[in-house]
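[recover] target loaded
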């Protein structure tokens, strides 16, 4: 797989291009997001995933592993399970647990793994695939998960929210989601996965669908101690990540015409300033969906999504 750098943090391969960079700053963004996810689920006995997969699991796959944080943590927690993390670019990892393998591969190509997986995990795939590619990806997941195995995915909104009107309507934060959504649609990889996640997983054939909704605060504004800590880390997640998530889209597919690099930098500086303003009570939404591949004797499992809203 041949790699080249574009614009200038982004990489492309012969087969595909990535709208998210693959460099140290982006890997720090992944780490911050991983920590927020752990903090927001720290009340659960296993904050890494909700699917009822135990220590007897043999094979787990992490698609879009990024810097490999989730795969490494799962391998540490389940030392008898072989955990594979896969991405189109190599993670900056010098050491992994002996039961963790980080691989460079394109999951849109034919899968070469022969063993069935007990769990396939995905996180923050928004705007990474065309609708047709997503359908193919979920079908590949379904085929490679053992009967009775699970799929689990976590997605975040690109929109930023505020419940108490402390954020001005004309702010950069208020317009962030719409600006990037239009660019992603022009790119052909729309930002609709958060809204369609349960439907796509169900249409792939999975059943017993569970949904967990959360609000992830951005900044230390919550009064709750845990949410305040999560908000501080999520603030860093956003401060580090805004350029990586927007530069490619806006300079290539900005509406109505592509933006200049300078315009993106100025806009993102305004956004960062607003995110750091303690008077703006900003958050983004998180959705976690986990569902099961029917086993031979479980065809009667409910296909209705079970939702557990959390604020």
């Amino acid at each position: 797989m041949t790699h080249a750098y574009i614009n200038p943090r982004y990489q492309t391969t012969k087969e595909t291009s990535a709208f998210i960079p693959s460099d140290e700053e982006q890997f720090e963004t992944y780490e911050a997001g991983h920590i927020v996810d752990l903090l927001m689920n720290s009340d659960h006995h296993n904050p890494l995933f909700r699917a009822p997969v135990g220590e007897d699991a043999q094979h787990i796959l992490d698609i879009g592993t990024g810097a490999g944080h989730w795969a490494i943590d799962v391998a540490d927690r389940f030392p008898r399970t072989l955990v594979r993390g896969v991405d189109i670019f190599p993670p900056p990892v010098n050491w992994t647990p002996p039961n963790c393998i980080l691989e460079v591969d394109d999951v849109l190509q034919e899968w070469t793994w022969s063993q069935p997986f007990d769990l396939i995990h995905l996180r923050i795939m928004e705007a990474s695939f065309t609708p047709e590619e997503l359908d193919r990806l979920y079908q590949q997941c379904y085929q490679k998960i053992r009967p009775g195995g699970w799929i689990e995915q976590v997605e975040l909104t690109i929109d930023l929210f505020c419940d108490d009107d402390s954020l001005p309507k004309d702010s950069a934060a208020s317009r962030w989601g719409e600006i990037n959504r239009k660019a992603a649609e022009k790119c052909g990889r729309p930002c609709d996965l958060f809204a369609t996640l349960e439907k796509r997983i169900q249409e792939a054939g999975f059943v017993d669908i569970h949904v967990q909704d959360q609000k992830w605060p951005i900044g230390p504004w919550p009064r709750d101690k845990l949410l305040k800590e999560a908000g501080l880390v999520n603030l860093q997640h956003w401060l580090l990540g805004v350029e990586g998530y927007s530069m490619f889209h806006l300079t290539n597919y900005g509406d109505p015409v592509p933006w200049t690099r300078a315009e993106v930098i100025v806009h993102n500086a305004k956004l960062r300033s607003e995110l750091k303003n303690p008077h703006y009570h900003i958050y983004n939404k998180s959705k976690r969906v986990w569902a099961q591949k029917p086993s031979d004797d479980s065809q009667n499992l409910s296909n209705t999504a079970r939702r557990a809203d959390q604020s």
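[recover] notes: The chain is about 35% helix and 25% strand.
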